Amino acid sequence: MVTFFFLFFTYLQKVEGAGVTIITHGLDGNVSDWIIPMAEAIGHSGRIPNQDFSCFEFHWIWNGTNYIPQSTFLKGSLPTNSSSGEILVKLDWSQLADGKYSTTQLAESITQAMLKLDFVPELSGHSVVELPIHLIGHSRGGSLVAEICRLLGARGIWIDQMTTLDPHPLNNDGFDGSCGLICDSIVIDGPVRPYENVLFADNYYQRLAAFVYGNNVPGAYNRKLLSLYQGYYTSNPLDPWYWHDYHSNVHLWYHATLDFTSPKTTDTQAFIDDSGRDAWFTSTEARGTRAGHFYSRLGGGNRLRDVQPAGLGSDRIRDGYNQRWDLGAGIGANRYALPDNDGSWPNPIQVKLLTHTFFTVTNVHTLAEIKVVPAIQEDSVVASFTYQSGTTNAQQTRVSFFLDRDTNPYNKNEIRLTDVDLSRTGVNAIASSNVVLKIDARRVPSGLYRIAGEISVGSRVRYLYGAEWLEVFPQLLISQLVLDSNAPRRWRLKATGIQQLTVALERSADLKSWIQLGSRVLAGGTDELNGAAEFIDETAPSTGAFYRALYTR
Fold first, then answer.
1. Whether 7 contacts 474, CB under 8 Å
2. What is the rounded distance in angstroms from the CA atom of residue 254 to the CA atom of residue 231?
3. Where are the beta strands (DSSP E) in 252-295?
4. Is 529 exposed, middle or buried (0-12, 13-18, 19+ CB in 10 A)?
5. How confident is the model at residue 87, as a pLDDT?
6. Beta strands in 129-273 (DSSP E)
7. Cβ of 205: how many Cβ atoms within 10 Å?
């Protein structure tokens, strides 16, 4: 009896993990009303495994001279311990949101903090920008997140997604004078633009309100909302919400793409019932289950879909995907050039599993007159890695690949596979490379893994996980191949192993060239591990031969 080890892969499609989601408010807003409920909805929506995430608040404090950004850990697992690697951030600039400070000023302040290795002490010396970033901003917050994207882009950092909810910067983008006396202040907010370092941009806006409303954002997937009754809406001009009704309903619409509670969905300040959900979402959006946050990294929706959720003549989902380079949506002019980009941070853009192949056999054993070859103990997958790094294509960038049972690169349970040096691209190009990742069954326990890439230049590191889970079985898939009888020139062999596997028998005289003699399905056993199949070689050479049984999928 000879034991056969195979490394068997099953691809299970999942959503991407390990990232930072930052949610912020607008003029005279705060994080207590609807942002905390939205962050809670993300954490408990089922899109973060085991609801195991870290929650922080970024805010400003007065140090006697200036307002300075500060990070406060609120709840959940420490980011170095969680299984998901997911960080949720409530960005609170309420004490500075009265129109005296521009969003550009605030973006400069928080961006400098996010780049520091000690801004979030709980990350133990890591910068918050090392993981993929999703920025969500309402009203003036739309301008703030766009400016954060621009300023991170000035350091070469890519943004996974920028989501704007009824964006409304002060004194910019056609809003001059449209929001009352406050807009006559000297504050000029940054424009709402998806820059070339933004992978996906989506914008949700309304023009139903006469006072505060949002705009179309060129280059994003734009979803104009045409029905927003219920929620914050009121027809009473004496109601404090009267001037913000439809405007606030835009973030309630987005909340409803996370929380599907029936008969009412609430963000603790307002709610919509089932009839409102039917009116707010189109049939393509499936009452909110295929809209909004569904197209985020955590939601797992296909951002390259050609569908038009709002009907003919409206934007396609794929219209919001970066077309500055061909990343799957083609080439087009849907991104604004970055005014500055020093290329100091390297960027993983996409990691995809392509295929896997078997390698050569090892260790020849002899059993009576039949020589049996144990199957391979090493297999491989091929991963496609797309990246951007450096100001020019001189020098190289180090990329490390590893397997991880979860999606947290900081909790030290990953299995390193290989390191490769790839040429830098410069800021005006991207590059893709197919990398063969060898997986040794002797050091990889069976289970589910994600393929992840770590790209670094000096101390600057960024991580990206592929969207697929990889199931590894370094098990006894084919447990036996034995000689059942050896009548002259008619040898009968029996293979046993896990039921329903398709097994092929091959013969060789020299271990170099192999001839397939047929295939069988292992069946008939009393339990899952006890299937069997019989092979008869009618042309067996009298001098003996090498045989092997191979799992053929």
1. yes
2. 12
3. 264-266, 271-273
4. middle
5. 97
6. 133-138, 159-165, 198-205, 221-224, 264-266, 271-273
7. 24
Helix, strand or coil for residue 71?
strand
Distance from C-alpha of 218 to C-alpha of 334, rounded to nearest angstrom: 7
Instruction: Quote the CA–CA distance of 479 and 529 in Å, as a whole number.
Output: 9
Residue 46 burial (10 A CB sphere; 0-12, 13-18, 19+): exposed
- Residue 451, C-beta contacts closer than 8 angstroms, at least 6 positions apart: 351, 353, 381, 383, 401, 402, 403, 437, 465, 466, 468, 470
Q: State the pLDDT at residue 34.
A: 96
Distance (Å, rounded) from C-alpha 40 to C-alpha 45?
Answer: 8
Q: How far apart are CA 350 and CA 297, in angstroms?
A: 12
> Which residues does the chain have with pLDDT short of 50?
1-13, 173, 175-184, 357-377, 474-476
User: How many CA atoms, within 13 angstroms, populate the side-chain half-sphere of residue 271?
Assistant: 11
Dihedral sign, Cα of residue 406, residue 412, residue 417, residue 418: positive
CA distance 245 to 445: 55
Whether residue 8 contacts residue 399, with contact meaning beta carbons closer than 8 Å, is answered with: no
Instruction: Give me the residue label for tokens 């090392």.
Output: 130
Q: Give the whole-angstrom CA distance, residue 485 versus residue 482.
A: 9
Give DSSP secondary structure letters for 81-110: T-SS--EEEEEE-GGGTTTTS-HHHHHHHH
DSSP, residue by residue, 404-468? ESSS-TTSS--EEEEEEEEE---TT--EEEEEEEEEETTTS-SEEEEEEEEEEETTEEEEEEEEE
The first and second tokens of residue 309, run together, are 């959720």
- Strand-pair partners of 165: 138, 204
pLDDT at 364: 36
Q: Which two structure tokens, joined as six digits, stand for 500? A: 């329903």
Q: Residue with structure tokens 């202040």?
A: 185
Torsion of CA 133, 137, 142, 145, to 10 degrees: -30
CA–CA separation, 501 and 525 (whole Å): 12
pLDDT in tens, 391-410: 988 889 999 999 999 999 99
Q: Among residues 501, 384, 535, which one has the least CA distance to residue 6?
A: 501
pLDDT tens per residue across span 183-225: 445 688 999 999 999 999 999 999 988 778 899 999 999 999 9
Report the SS3 class of residue 217.
coil
With b for 16 or more beta-carbon neighbours within 10 A and e for fewer, the 296-314 pattern comes to: bbbbbbebebeebbbeeee
How many residues are recorded in the chain?
553
Q: What predicted TM-score, i.e. pTM, was given to this entire model?
A: 0.82
Q: How far is residue 457's CA from residue 139's CA, in Å, rounded to a whole number?
A: 36
- Interval 516-541: pLDDT, tens: 888 888 887 666 557 888 888 888 77
Helix, strand, or coil here: 67?
Answer: strand
| Tokens encoding 536 | 């008869």
Give residue-wise pLDDT tens across range 121-154.
999 999 999 999 999 999 999 999 999 999 999 9
pLDDT at 477: 54
